[in-house]
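FIELD: query
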Amino acid sequence: MESTPVESTAVAPAPESVAPGAAPSRSPLLARAAAELIGTALLVAVVVGSGIQATELTTDVGVQLLANSMATVFGLGILILLLGPVSGAHFNPVVTLAEWWTARRGGSGVTLREVAVYLPAQVVGAVAGAILADAMFGEPLVKWSTHDRSAGHLLLGEVVATAGLILLIFGLARVGRLQYAPVAVASYIGAAYWFTSSTSFANPAVTIGRTFTDTFAGIAPGSLVGFIGMQLVGGAVGLALVALVFPSGRERAE
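FIELD: result
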């Protein structure tokens, strides 16, 4: 959920100076792709698996959501801490695309080649994570979700959740506090489970993965386009808010 050119032989910058999601230059692209795939897979396994576990332990929907959100907070924080130094721990196409956009605007970020590698790795990882969670709990490995999430207020929730996530990540980068990303990003997602109507998917890859499971955390394939569309809109809104609240030198000059 988070530069120097990837192939550069320059010494990697200190962690606090690295842009959102940027990886040290010494990390091979294959290693970064593997980190994105594995990290996204484990994130979805946490989300889906904890949802299944919660529904097996209680019929109280509030308690189910509490268990699901707490597991996601802890799991996401650990994954960012572990894999951030390798790939930047994006686990999210919106974060990857936002970083690529900032690079196009003269900032630091991933290249188009890296985007072309990161995005498929994230999607494949998300699908694999959902299948893994279903396998661990004896559910059908692939069963399309029947949880319709197409209502307008849920789509608005995705815009808000994603915009806030991008504002947080890139805002931390602008003020030089990315060392707090594992705690800050995990805490934000945990809070957004509760203050957004959509329970804060805020991630196209995770959304795709969650269509493969007809369990507590699933989303019907028919809701997919709307959710992903609003997540991309939220990403654009988030970048606009970053430019407004934390203007760079170039943006101040403009």
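FIELD: remark
The two ends are 29 Å apart (CA to CA).
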